[in-house]
Here is the input.
Amino acid sequence: MKKVAIALSLLMILTSCVSKKQYAALEAKNKETQDLLNTCTVKLNACLEEKAGLKASVDGLKDQNQLLISQSKDMTVLTTKGAQNIEKALESIKEKDLKISRMQDALTKKDSVTLAVVTSLKASVGISDPDIEINVEKGVVFIQIADKLLFKSGSYEVTDKAKSVLAKVAKVVNDKPDFECMVEGNTDNVPYNGSGVLLDNWDLSVKRSTSIIRILAGDLGVNPAQLIAAGRSSYTPLVANDTAENRAKNRRTRIVVLPKIDQFYEMVEKEMKKQTGATPEVKN
Here is the structure.
């Protein structure tokens, strides 16, 4: 602007003493200078605007950088917590794997004991007799003896032939003092019509059970504490009571050999209560 003023002053001074040709040249030069000044002003304003935009971008990038730094710290905290949670989860999995392994070992032990009992019983009693059946259901050994080997029809007196069979069962039970032996009487659906103290098939089934137990405990030396008497009357038939042959199958005595693996059952109960959050029962 100062240059323009000087140029204008010179122009005024020289107007009176320069020729028209010189004046025109000076005027043209002044216009060129003015145009150049205007161009520079426009460029300056553009640069200032660009500078302001860049400053705003820099400020935004600074804010974004600070946010990223903060998020990075949060991620570090989250990663640490996540690692701790994973470690706890792995420890829990290891504990559960150990529990499962122990329970599987206990089950294997129980199955091994049961298999040994079955083998011993089959060897002692013999499986060739069609009226004696030995099998395993859910880890429990069952010996089913047809009533025609044990009793006369409608009677609860044990026959002499039955005593020889029961002697073999007693030997196995006596060799396993930690086992329990439940004697279960079963009848067909024909109503009991005998005389005496028995009223019905319930009485007959239980009386047959106690008669066998008296032979096992009194004559064959089985510990009475191992024996359990039970009667089911006609309510657990093997087959329909629609023929004489089927009714004969349903008249039977079942001897149930129950391995007492206290450690196994206590461990299962304890682990199940832990899983459900229950308080283990304190035994007196």
